[in-house]
Amino acid sequence: MPGSAPLILASASPRRLELLAQIGIVPDRVAPTDIDETRRKAESPRELALRLAREKAAACDAEGAFVLAADTVVALGQRNLEKAADETEAADFLRLLSGRAHQCITGVAVRAPSGQIVSRAVLARVKMKRLTEAEIAAYVASGDWKGKAGGYGIQGAAGGFVTAINGSYTAIVGLPLYETKSLLEGLGYRR
Predict the structure, then answer these.
(1) Which CATH code of 1.10.10.10, 3.40.30.10, 3.30.530.20, 3.90.950.10 fits the domain covering 7-186?
(2) Catalytic site positions
(3) Is the pLDDT of residue 2 over 50?
(4) The whole model's pTM is what?
């Protein structure tokens, strides 16, 4: 039935809005949530991404609406590379990722108007070329690393550093579209 309950995007990410638009979904409202994103002791990157997405969906004040939330974690082994705090940390992250494969895990959660929450974690493996100090410096100077897990955005200039991807490109950007659409439709969301 067209015109089901409204959809609220619990994220400030412009990339997530752009990705949703690619599949014809425009949220009725954007309402980012503020939760503690600290990793718990012994929590795997996958568990962290799922928990944060679920907590964001639960924390959104949107009674009677569908709520979509997501969180992306970049992991090198069991080490999380969060959003870089500054240029030095962004450069350090790129040095760590240089010439290596890492994982991007995006947790997606949808809360139905009934309060039921369903979620899924989507993992993609990304391999970067060996970066020169000049490439790292130029990328960091561009500012494109700001606000991005792992200190880079594959949809920008850093896409030129990636030699291989195994998994969902849209999960790396921040919202796996197939899984997101499936979760929404499974709970009865219709546009």
Answers:
(1) 3.90.950.10
(2) 71
(3) no
(4) 0.92
